[in-house]
């Protein structure tokens, strides 16, 4: 376990004790000696979920019952009834329950190593910064934030606190997705020439925060279009150099008063590869297709919670089906336990790259211009 | 068999004879009595292929060995060696062989009922008009022509000659395609909301006529993009009301000096349905996907010579595999034999609608503007 800067000394003295000095010295990302749980090999990192909405309730909490390297240790919620329900269901002590005002006291809670921020997009910045300042490593749901400036502030706060920041990019730990990354980036079917990646679904409740621009930062592009952006990026292994984009006219202008209903965008990559993508809150679509010089490969479904399904011009992709959320949290926590720097493609830097692209897509659609991304 | 205006009387007197007067009177599209082959139930319409390139040689001629209502009766070619080869291979008499200069004499050839124009796009107009003036029904490969004015001239010429004009829309006779038309137009999964339809392939020979703008009228959009346009139209059963489009930068500017290499376009339909499409001579992609209110359906491959493959949110689409070209020519010729007006969606009017859309897509991409198609 890596502790917060402020807690590390105290924990070192009280929890790990002198015995830690006798084990091989691991170091943290800055090369400083790491207080590992080497003396407690079975110990799991304690995760606190901030925000107990659908994703926490139905995906993360159940996944945390399957994880090997972390466990559900705490919750942060503004709804007392939810706190009660979760305490009972997951056997969480009152000491590990916070609301949004008491949250900062988590600095003193040695049960909590990682804070997972699962709040509306516009609250990510505040709670990631507060979590880092409380000495916790942070996982933050995608999109990382609603502006590039927010992303940068979050990265800076974690750096300053010497904590690591992961974004909820669960698919980087998902075997079918890892396979298409390999097929594309290693040019197994030759260079990737064209990608069709789309993600959309029919959005229900017209009052949800995801339809409010101030909270979500945008519509389906921010929510699920980001997967299509990720898909084009991780299949090519490249950063797009320009983008064009189009808003589709709204068929339900009342529901989509503040955010786009459906939109399209096209990336150009340095290698010459191009992509065409759609995102929508009006239509279901979920596919990642890559046309290469000597063949093709496809995931469909490509971005949902699984199981994913894949095929190539040579036949089906066969991979184990995993719990995406468990694989993601275990992957992050294993690296934290081992004192490793998290892989770049799941960090805040990656989150910022995506948010920058999402903003460029909106700008391209608003202006009707090709936006140069090299600048 | 329906004869040309100029020939009908002669044929009536010499071929069918008085016996035709004793059978129930069928009428042609204008209500005039029809000279049927009722007395010769097994007779097949004679088809002459104009242009003996890849499609004629490898698809149409073999298909005409399987057809029930037509047969390969003549050829029109500028290459004497090809004429010899075909005469022998298909047992075609010298009297039924023409070159581009002697072609008009086909007016006197009672073996030939239908002329199928399989020439480069810019030659379609001339040979369709000449065929109609020679009293023949005409099938013309897609795209119908390279300008809307050409299409209109072709329609007018056939109308004036009282001949029918079909475009090479083979997929309208293909069972998987007919099924997705039904699923979409009859709203089997509820209204269609979004369509992703794309068609592209890696183009070979850099010297082929398809890369020359004067002959092809454009690049992959004219050649295969038209299938993606058709797909969006026949799944919705609607005509698009606006379009945006984008050229992708060329990765091989030498090869694609005259025409686009890859491009994208987005249609909006009156019902609110939208589509996003890609066509390319640089990348293989071939799919027609429809997202509906209560499910989805897909063909992939969707536009090639078959077999096509389809699935829906409820399971696979199971349909008989047919020879596309045989089904198409048989369907057209059966209607001609029966004196029926050809279905609107395979006529010159449909061809013109597509060419008008192709031109609008180019205009949208060139100007960066949304092109209003209602005007």
TrEMBL record, chains A, B:
Domain GFO/IDH/MocA-like oxidoreductase residues, every copy: 178-292
GO molecular function terms noted in the UniProt entry: nucleotide binding; oxidoreductase activity
Pfam families: GFO_IDH_MocA, GFO_IDH_MocA_C3
Protein name in the entry: Oxidoreductase domain protein
Annotated SUPFAM superfamilies: Glyceraldehyde-3-phosphate dehydrogenase-like, C-terminal domain, NAD(P)-binding Rossmann-fold domains
Domain Gfo/Idh/MocA-like oxidoreductase N-terminal: 46-169
Keywords for the protein's UniProt record, in alphabetical order: Oxidoreductase
Top-rank lineage group of the source organism: Bacteria
Gene3D superfamilies (UniProt xref): Dihydrodipicolinate Reductase, domain 2, NAD(P)-binding Rossmann-like Domain
PANTHER family, per database record: BCDNA.GH03377
Coiled-coil stretches noted in the UniProt entry, renumbered to this chain: none
Source species of the chain: Fibrella aestuarina BUZ 2
